Amino acid sequence: MTEPQPHTRLQALLASAPGWVGGALTGVQAALLGLVVVITPAFAAAAAAPTSDGSAAIDWMGVSKLAARLWLLAHGVSFYVEGVEFTLAPLGLTLLCAAILAAIARRFCTKTWASWAIATGTYAGIVVVAEIVAMRGYPGAGPRSAQTAIAALFIAGPAVAVGIWRAHGAEFGWVPRVSATVRKGLRLGLATVAASLCVAALVAGAFTYLGRDRISAAAAALGIDPLGGVALAFGEALYAPNLSVWMLGWMTGQGFSVGEGSVYAPGEVAADAVPAFPLFGALPTVSGGLLVWAPLTIVALAALMRVALRRRIAATVEDLPAVAAAVLTAAVTAAVLAGIASGSLGPGRLAFVGVEVLPVSVMVGILAALGFGVGHGLLMLGAAARARGAGRPRLHVVPDPVPTGP
User: Fold this and answer.
1) Burial class (CB in 10 A: 0-12, 13-18, 19+), 92
2) Domain boundaries, the chain
């Protein structure tokens, strides 16, 4: 008789334990693993830094605090350096923490509301406690526990739900009770923003390739060793989702800014001195010409999504409210993305870096409305053409009789 595997024994224990046990384990493990993901490259970079006294001279506690504050920054907690506030959250780390939560919840959580609530609450509680500890000793920078708790709940809640859904399935019996107009609008609006964000990421990748020389020069100017360069690359990559959202603002024609007085838009690039971060080498340096037509990309994507969802949203007057709901969904989603992808990189001119929420969200709504209108019109024209084709009499050709003999 074979000995049961450890993970099988663990699953049996969790199955017989109350639902809150798996939830508590999920929250604690996800928080610790997220911290380890940040602390490991920080330790590696610190250990590789040349010092006269070797590793004995390294302030390991200081490195740990720095990494913990970066982890908190991903949860909306301000990062303070010598009294200077940084609020630009690394969305890549935020998404990584959410992925860790989903993976651990898939293994440890049970299919109960109690397990979900305990996992979410435990994770948020750890983040709040860490924020209170980290903000001690910073005059004028007291803890904002309520704000931190809300941010952590918005990260942990959906992530844990996805993990439970992947492991045990889910029943969405409440969905039919939601208005069909709302459901259709949400589907079309979110699909349009998702497609636009994917194209924005490709645009960001293109500008990163064009700026590869500037990026390498900025990294070389820092004078770091190869291991430190890997840690720096990891840290810079955590801001790649922020750059994608900035490029979404660029695609609307409104652009984004990296400090007061700067603008990066298809029609204009007005750049001022920026910090020597390699990431900023990926910012656009060209404008005008064909680039001014960049907003039409969102129009085309909206039209494409409208046509792609023609089976769910018919080209009729009755479904126009669903299209209007999709426009509102696209605008609100763009506003949320712009808000979480922007923040402060320091005092004075760098007090705001990123995308202006109101202009960009309004432009996304306008461009999406134009695209939906084009797609709706194409569908109506196609339906009319098919109707005319169905009404035409067909010409039947009678074949000549086949001779049967001489």
Assistant:
1) buried
2) 7-171, 180-390
